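As the next step, I needed to go through one protein, both as residues and as discrete backbone shape codes, included below for the reader:
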Amino acid sequence: MINFKYAIPEIELFAYTPNIDRVCAAAARSTQKKISSAEIYDKDDSNKVDRTLEYTIKMGHHSITEHGTLTFSIKDVSRSMTHQFVRHRIASYSQQSQRYVKYDEPEFLLPQSIENNPEAKRIYDKFMKEVANTYNELINLVKTEDARYVLPNATATTITATFNPRSLLNFFRLRADKKHAQSEICSCAYSMWAEAALVAPKIMSPKLFQEANLGTKNGEYYIDELIEIIDKSRKKFENAKIGEIVEIDLSALEDKDDIIRVKARVRKLF
């Protein structure tokens, strides 16, 4: 009998453009100034940066938020989630290959609705045990790339994703919408949003997102809870040493029926 376990998603923002807010604000102001964006970058203070971004984003000039990148390491999410994730095409992805990686002890994602239903959980557990055993029998008989055909959408995977701020905001617009997004990708979106807001506090501000009407027409978002999470984490991030990994407490969201547990962290780079 092969062992298997249920995975908990982990997301870390581990690489990003320094001073993304300042870069984007300088790009915005350079369109109406004789001096260059580099000169504006050196000259403007943080208040000017914030005012520039707030005005520009509220006016709908979102292209200025394309100057910069944020790269996330995403671990132990389901293949079902990543099938949705990679549909956001203005981003770059590198995903763990089931052709080359053998799952001697497979990990699967357990949807909250199944976890909360004892009979559904019993059926789910039974099937996953059968899958784990069947897969491990096959990898001793055929190539890994062929044995993988029996693996379900629930199989845990890893993926690296790089977004520019504009495409990331669009991802949040669609996938943080608790009314329409599936729970796993919605939960991951809030983790990524909290992480991104620590390195680009104005562009990724949930308050500005709400005030600028960046959400879907009938969407529903956990804005107040997200602001609470970000505010609690900001001082810890600001005081962190270079290279330190800062854990983000998402407990303000974990009591929601449509949110699953995600481990969130940001690496302090600058």
